Amino acid sequence: MRLFSVKELSDLKEDTEVLLHGWVQETRTTKNLIFVVFRDHTGLAQLTIRRDSWNGIEVDNIPRESAISVSGTFMVHGKSKTGPEISPSKITILNIAGSPLPLAVSDPVNSDIETRLNNRFLDLRKREVGIIFRVESDLLWGIRKHMSQNGFTEVHTPKIVGTSTEGGSDLFAVRYFEKEAFLNQSPQLYKEILVSSGVNRVFEVGPAFRAEKHNTVRHLNEFTSIDIEMAFSDHNDAMVMLENAVRSGILEVSAGEREVKEALGVEVKVPEVPFPRITFEECVDYLSSKGMAHRDGEDFSPDELRIIGERFTGFYFITRWPASLRPFYTMPDPDDSNYTNSFDLQFRENEITSGAQRVHDPEMLRNRFLAKGLNPDDFSFYLEAFRYGMPPHAGWGLGLERLTMIVLGLKNIREATVFPRDRNRISP
Ligand code: AMO
């Protein structure tokens, strides 16, 4: 007897013998019949048992969410609204579930997010929760495909490091034998070193750690960063690579569009490329035309981004950021060094990606360290790679959870994180 998933049953002929593995979602009984709502990773089926001809285990009281194995025959003409109908010949309990359940699986999502996260293993059994991570996986797969098709090599760089990457205080310190070390905020310095190594184009998908104290619906203290770096390229090349990578990711999700629509009521729209581009200065002018005076030297506030985002229907780039708002590695605009060859990818008010052309001249880089109040000697392992023919290069970093959040219209980034880490949560 072959193992099937519920989704595969619809193609079968009447009376085909099947084996299924999954969970008991619910049991309903009548005088003559027992109906078990059976669930596997692909959907729901109904097991219909006639009491007078049943000689298997006692089915009436199998606790909800117990794991079972079912052998039986497929009933093409079944009348169940639950899904495909099976007439079981044998049911085996693989593992009995305790009761009561800390979180009901068959009800719609209605518990608060903390209860859900505390019981994530059960929460994820809900179709509308589980599907978020299928979508996240598809997004990443589509992006990986795009990077691979464009000659990028996937790399893995250390997460335990000796210096800050993105500057400032947002660092988690760890004890590293006799020394103090940190959890890396971004693979920035390593991906740049690698473009000087002759690999030419690299990408990495890995954890990034930020000890940001604020607890918001857009921030995690550990997130998944998709990073790329490309040699002999500038910020314009990096933007083209990004918009096409995002499109490729969403295209991959759209293959399962119907399921996403059914489970979450969300329409997945594949975006057109190129995405619109607007400079930082144009944003400032636009805000002032709306009666909002942007404060010099500051990043856009969430309110300002909301107003700017209303101009666009989906993704757009904000380019040419002031040098004071970008890290030391960002290439100044050759026409005006108060600005940089940099960009953010936005979706409405949400920032999804930051990127830029980088400084490749070692002298200029030293000066950029000094201008930012950093000691170049702390970064000697990085600066060394610039002294022997570092190519001009550019790249970006994209937060996977943020992308999932906007593709599915989720309100809280924790929804797009299997086991989120935030100001108050380090378990499960
Ligand atoms: P940046 O710090 O802007 O740039 O981060 C890049 C992208 O990572 C995501 N992100 C976050 N997601 C969730 N929680 C957080 N706390 C968080 N912080 C950042 C966002 C953001 O756009 N080295 C540069 C990238 C580069 O230039 O290549 C960097 O890390 O989606």
Keyphrases for this structure?
428 residues, alpha+beta, eight-stranded mixed β-sheet, five-stranded mixed barrel, 27% helix, 28% strand, binds aspartyl-adenosine-5'-monophosphate
Structure description:
The protein is of the alpha+beta class. It contains twelve helices and 19 strands. α4 crosses α6 and α4 packs across α12. The protein is elongated, with a radius of gyration of 27 Å. It starts with a strand and ends in a 20-residue tail after the last helix. The mean pLDDT is 95. The chain binds aspartyl-adenosine-5'-monophosphate. The site of aspartyl-adenosine-5'-monophosphate has 23 residues, from β12, β18, β19 and α12.
